Amino acid sequence: MVAMVIFLELVLLATTGCSVAHPGETHLPTSDLTADGGGTNFRRKRHAEVPRYNRSGGFNEYEATLLLEKHNEYRAMENASNMWIMEWNTYLQRSAQNYADKCNFDHSSASYRANIGGYKVGENIHLANYKLLVTRPATSWYSEKRFYRYYHATAKCEPKKTCGHYKQLVWYNSHALGCGIKFCESVENAGPEYNNSYLVVCHYGPNGNFRFAWPYRKGEPCSECDKNITPYCIRGLCSPWPDETPENAIEAASGSENFTAQLNIIVLMLTSLATLKLT
To answer: What keywords tag this UniProt record (predicted)?
Structure first.
């Protein structure tokens, strides 16, 4: 008998309820879970398979780096004038992992995401019962771009199509990212065909994907960065830092919550100063 492998995929979006997506891209090639440069330089590796076991600990540093870089790669592809660079956030990682651990294919409550690390948080969810690549959730969400009508007066999806996951991924000022993953033997709010599946949850701060609003402004990259908050341009993305995010940034964020808290405080202070200057 010829064995047949069925690839099934579901995605959820925080602000518009449940949705089903059918991405059209092919399955990407994989590579070993080995790091360049003796275990510290992860920037050259682009694909990695998630080990098929119970991931109670969530993404490791290497996997988190891949997923973060894939988000920033897609954001840079939009050629936006005001797009922020994303950085890994410990608080959002923890909240996403805590929810992924529930193995529930439904969104967390608005109250759960109302204030995490100082952010009101957006949420994308990905469920897959096949061998998962670390970057596959981001690729699936970004593939919805083909259903988004940027130049439409109401900046919305094509009729009966889903594009909200894409909008959240590329929302211009959603600059904090944290994701969790769980290998679930059974999944609440999903059929039995999704037993033994991966559930990936990503949290974004601040939240985006507002209805009837453009996720970013098209134009010369970095031409509309806020000079008080994100005065630098990194790979076409507005950044608070003059250089690329250090290789150990995720390790530092995971090891010290003060890293995230201090960044949030600095951004809030600079925003307040900018507001006072305008008034």
So the answer is: Signal
The Cα 261–Cα 91 span in angstroms is: 9
Q: What is the DSSP string of 143-206?
A: GGGGGB-TTSTT--BPTT---HHHHHHT-TT--EEEEEEEEESS-BTS-GGGSSEEEEEEEEES
> According to the model, what pLDDT value does residue 152 have?
75
CA angle 11, 216, 218 (to 5 degrees): 125
Report which DSSP code applies to 111: T
Mean pLDDT by 10 residues, the chain (279 residues): 38 40 26 22 46 68 96 97 97 97 95 96 94 94 94 81 95 97 95 94 96 92 96 96 63 47 45 39
- Spacing of C-alpha 254 from chain mean position: 17
Residue 260: phi and psi, rounded to 5, are -70, -45
The residues pairing with 92 across neighbouring beta strands, listed in sequence order, are none
Three-state SS letters, 5-47: CCCCEEEEECCCEEECCCCCCCCCCCCCCCCECCCCECCCCCC
Radius of gyration of the chain (CA): 18
Torsion 215-217-223-227 (CA) sign? negative
φ, ψ (nearest 5 deg) of residue 154: -105, 5
Beta bridge partners, 80, equal 218
Q: Which residue has the tokens 């806020």?
A: 226
